[in-house]
Amino acid sequence: ALSFWITFVALLMVYQSFFIGGGPGSSWTFYPPLSVEGQPEMSLDVMILGLHTVGIGSLLGAINFMVTVQNMRSIAVTLDQISMFVWTSYLTSFLLVLSV
User: Fold this and answer.
1) Cα(4)–Cα(30) distance, integer angstroms
2) In which domain, by residue range, is 89 found?
3) b/e burial code for range 6-42 (CB count within 10 A of at least 16 → b)
4) Contact status, residue 20 vs residue 46, Cβ threshold 8 Å
5) Residues 19, 14: Cα–Cα separation, whole Å
6) What is the pTM of this model?
7) Boundaries of each Cytochrome oxidase subunit I profile domain copy (predicted)?
């Protein structure tokens, strides 16, 4: 539940940044040099903070899913015996955590 609320607040921050000081005008990168040169307002800062916070929420959701899979399966069932959907979701969550 924490990852959902972090993501929700972060997306509100991203949405709010469109209305602060004319919005972020940094093309699709959001990082220097375009973000440094022409942004005197704080809209780009709010956008970057919001996008980083969305990433934190996604990471917490992946950890939550991995812990849930480990705790909810039976001891007699090994990881190669669980359903394909759960296994691939677990693998995707693991790769997301590994990428950080």
Assistant:
1) 24
2) 2-99
3) bbeebeebbeebeeeeeebebeeeeeeebbeeebeee
4) yes
5) 10
6) 0.79
7) 1-100
